[in-house]
Design a protein that fits this description.
Blueprint: H1 9-16, H2 22-35, H3 43-68, H4 70-76, H5 81-84, H6 91-108, H7 112-129, H8 139-162, H9 170-191, H10 195-200, H11 206-236, H12 240-262, H13 264-293
GO molecular function: chlorophyll synthetase activity
Membrane topology: Multi-pass membrane protein
Subcellular location: Membrane
Amino acid sequence: MSSLSLPAPSAVAELLKPITWFPPMWAFGCGVVASGEPLADRWPLVLAGLVLAGPAVCATSQAVNDWFDREVDAINEPQRPIPSGRLPGRWGLYIALAWTALSLGLASLLGPVAFGAAIFGLLLAWAYSAPPLRLKRNGWWGNSACALCYEGLAWATGGAVMMLGTWPDARSLLLALLYSLGAHGIMTLNDFKAIEGDRRMGIGSLPVRLGVDGAARVACAAMLLPQLVVVALLMGWGQPVHATGVGALVAAQALLMRHFLAAPRARALWYSARGVGLYVGGMLVSAFALRAAGAGA
């Protein structure tokens, strides 16, 4: 296929990875709920914000990552669009640049706060994958950047859009930060499938740096500890029912983690398919706790 010919839409869709859009869209929705603002007259903003969080900014990050990871993917996942040749030439880069521009255009319609958040998120997306920073070379920094964008920034932006251009209050931002810290562990789970390629290409993911067992223990601690802080905060904010709900979800995750830790490399995907749903369920319960407490008022 000539690099001048248009790539197949299926290859472009695969590059943009729609399945990855869910976490930031969910986090944006949690920020909407936590704001306490009525949805009735603001649903167009919410819909636009969901598109910004998922099909725009998150999709951009996926395209950027696949372009700059094409040599690693040729080892780990040669069937992906770029190493397989289904996106020939520099099409991966062109799509990443185009989606960056589209994301900024959409964000500009949602006000200065959302626009600023989009700029910050896109800068992190490029810094994560592209040289000279290429944050993903260090699993501590790279996973932190991803977790912040996927959870905290999206949550805060959802609240800001609902509040018509002002940031949500300190309690909402604190929960957004805590769930970002926990998401660092979720990002580490994704690294178990790429250990060989990462090691050969000098990518210092936590499984490469700490070993499989060490990275698995760090991932579990990173997920559990912030959620326990959330439970304590909700109790302190006078929301015992919601705190109990989050606590039950944390307990369920801990039970699953015991099975994961027995064979982390083989069961990382297994845990992701089960434990991450419990994690994001706790996010929504926490958002409703703030709504009940009037935290977004």
